[in-house]
Amino acid sequence: MHGWEYWVGHYGYLAIAIGTLLEGETVLVLAGLAISQGQLLYLKVILLSVICSFIGDQFWFWLGRRYGDRLIYAWPRLQPRVERMQRLISRYHAPLIIVNRFLYGLRALGPALFGTTPLPLWVFVFFNLVGAVFWSMVVVGVGMGLHEFWSRFAATLPLALVAVLCLIAVVLWWRRGRRQRAA
């Protein structure tokens, strides 16, 4: 049986490529942990995640541009919501394209919806690239920060446990004394 280091070393970059084509947050947080442990290279992870997440969102944008109207009109109940989102996109397209990456579960739906609007392709490409860079750096940074947090937390866990137990004992002692005085 192989350990974490074997799997990360052999399949880490492949997992990042596949994961960031789809959603990718979990994969990138784990990549940040692996970077902190020296198992993956920061620059490679960032470049790979930027490229693959960019390509994935461009694909969904293209699907929205090509087939989006047919899908929207296939479900008339969704039309008012979609039209409202399209108005928001036409007004706030830049921040929405960038922020969409951080909306877990909407990563594919957002670019497809952007594709149904008259938004020029070059505008989506530019802000999609900006968003891919920002998203990759933030999510990998969270993973690296979690490693740092866990390292410090694990080192202080015994002290924290003693402090919590003492606090519980003091609260119980105080409540007991209060009940006795009330009786």
Main attributes of the structure:
mainly alpha, 0% strand, 183 residues
Describe the main β-sheet briefly: none
Mean pLDDT: 85
What is the overall silhouette?
Answer: flat
E-strand count = 0
* Element-by-element helix/strand order: HHHHHH
Distance between the termini: 63 Å
> What is Rg?
24 Å
Assembly form of the protein: single chain
Tally of domains: 1
- Total helical segments: 6
Helix fraction, binned, reads over 70%
β-strand amount: under 5%
Report low-confidence residues grouped into runs of 5 or more: none
Which structural class matches the secondary elements?
mainly alpha
SSE topology:
Layout: H1 4-22, H2 25-36, H3 42-74, H4 79-100, H5 109-115, H6 121-182
Kindly describe this structure.
The chain has 183 residues and is mostly helical. The protein has 6 helices and no strands. The protein has helices at residues 4-22, 25-36, 42-74, 79-100, 109-115, 121-182. The N and C termini lie far apart (63 Å).
